[in-house]
Amino acid sequence: MTSRLILGKDVSEEIYLELRARIAALKERGVVPGLAVVLVGDDPASQVYVRKKGEMCESLGMHSVTVRMPGDISQEALMAKVEELNRDPSVHGFLVQLPLPSHLDEEQVINSISPDKDVDCFHPANVGRMLIGNPDFLPATPAGVQQMLVRSGIETKGKHVVVVGRSNIVGKPMAALMIQKGAGADSTVTVVHSRTKNLPEITRQADILVVAIGKPRFVTADMVKEGAVVIDVGTNRVDDPSKPSGSRLVGDVDFEAVKEKASAITPVPGGVGPMTICMLMANAVKAAERASEARI
Predict the structure, then answer these.
(1) Would you please indicate which residues are annotated as catalytic (active-site) residues?
(2) How far apart are the C-alpha atoms of 72 and 70, rounded to whole Å?
(3) Is residue 23 within 8 Å of residue 33, measured between CB atoms?
(4) For residue 21, what pLDDT is reported?
(5) Which terminus in the chain has less CB density within 10 A, N or C?
């Protein structure tokens, strides 16, 4: 079997086309969607991610703000910045890039972000709304995975979706999205994780397997049913002496082996990755639309 590649670049370009039209409509009403990112410290991966967010904002014609703060900043100073962004009318959505340095209280920071501007969908109010099926925002990576399925014509209704991993960022919200009523959902969902017994036995039952466990090539071919759709959310750097950098990116799925069994699969890099920033932009535009309507 030759599996079909599901590429985040293709799906995101389709969504960006729609977003550009919505942004143009907002600008006609005098509103420029604004997204701010708070970056604490100098974590290299976070810096790259934040730079890409800023570049995409510029490309779409949005207002972009990057707030850089030292790694030894106090909790009080960070909270003051969050409150400032909560009040700034030019910033429709913002996020504090995680992880934060260990001396800072992430939960307190997340809880202090206004739910109306919480484009990461980490605030308990937004998580709760998502769970009951009445969301304001959807978390970017799981929403991106759902869009990849929908826009690739993959049927989810009545399908068995197995999610590997139970993080608050991917695993839990992914399960919450797929179990809802409606397009791109209506699935039967099982979540497996590091404490699951007979994990391969369960993953082999999946019509759609979403893997976000943070272990390179964790899912092997014998864990996948013939013809399953495999979505690899993992990003792991492994040693590779043949590369100038000495390393390369691989997913949580053994891609070369699993692609021989899957009907469709996402590569790493190039699969889910581009969707995260895309859906973050979609949340920022939605926040701007809601703020604009509230002013009328």
Answers:
(1) 53, 97, 120
(2) 5
(3) yes
(4) 98
(5) C
